[in-house]
Design goal:
alpha+beta, 5-stranded mixed sheet, GGDEF_dom, transmembrane, Diguanylate_Cyclase, Alpha-Beta Plaits, membrane
Length: 480
Amino acid sequence: MGRGWKTYVAVMAVTVLAGSLLTDGSPAELTVSLGTGLSMAAAILIGLRRVPHGERAPWRFFALGLLLTALASLADGQGADVLPGDGPDLADALYLAFYPAIGIGLILMIKLSRRRTDWAALVDAATVTAGLALLAWIYAIGPALRDDTVGLAARLVTIAYPIADLLLLAITIRLLRSNGREGRRAPTLVAAAVLGYLAGDMAWVIVPHVNEAWADVAGVGQVINTVYELSVLVLTMAIAWPQVRGDGQGAASVSQLSRVQLAVLTAAVMISPALMIEQQLTGGITNGLAIAIGSAIMFLLVMARFTQLLKQAERQSRTVSALSRTDELTNLPNRRAWNDELPRVLERARSARAPVVVSMIDLDHFKSFNDTYGHPAGDRLLSAAAAAWSAELRDGDVLARYGGEEFIVLLPGTDESKATAVLERLRAVTPAAQTFSAGLARWDNTETSEALIARADSALYAAKAAGRDRILAAEAYAVS
């Protein structure tokens, strides 16, 4: 944030706090409220020059939302009516228009993050929203619908606020989760601003419930209005860090719940039993059906989340198992996988009375290659050799990395002469003009896998001792 923006934010913060000391609804207070609102909307529009052209749409909708709230505060002070009688006034229309403007801006910002849909994040958002929706129903929506002292239009306006709050909350949670681990500052500040605004709305619901007399205390309303305006200021600040567009990578894994996320989800799930206890202690349960429905919805959401966690754990288990049996450099089976597979192949060969050959391969002068060209080049040689050799093997043959520059090949259904022909094909495609030595051994249908590998290894060392760049077979055994 540049010096100009810091100065502007500081001046606006002081102005908002000073305005909170003025008499609520007075001309001076209305002037300050209107002036700050219009100023912050204008600041976002001016700040658009910092934003790439393809990323300006969310900010335009945010500026529209701020303009609407500023005009709503003016209309609220003037008492302009949209409908006669006790129907909604112009301020209500402007305040309610704020929600779709901000909601569209949030959705566009989520799209700019370019992240894939994260279903676990959606379940988390739905769980928190469902818990707060139950609170809103019991303390705001339900009582408003049952209030026969006012007309239908006024009741619809009353319930429109908490419903809009809930929808905006769900979208905001989605934005936070779409922000990923990069934690770009603009989406974080935008989300914080919206959550602060929604906290002010929630305060208007909670305060009368706790103590109805507090709602008429001027200081309470001024504090809540200050929260609104400071939240709007945070939204204005966000454009100082306009970077929003993501890299298109997958969303951060939300299966690993942080302590804060777990605490929020736990609090949301505990709303139903807390309401049940509160009503039972204060004169009996009067919203049993609503609480039961809310509990069922949250139970289903928790089960959906639990299922996601189990699936994620299963995927991770399979991944870990695969990694533990795969060589990281060459993507070939590693020594552990080989030691598991060879006894099974030998047992099948015993039953079918089929020949099996095992060959050990060692790249010649690999240490000198590493010393000359460096270890990264040596790693590239191993990887390239594994890929080239794999392409020459038949279906059913198994190539594994045994360790260092040593590889081992399993050639089922093959005798020594055919195995030698296969290995000669591998020698011909060895990359970087390198050679290898190899030893092979045919299984005698009785020896252990360890003994078979030891004979192939002895043949390998005999090939290296004979001058390298050759293939030698261990002594042959007749198949019984």
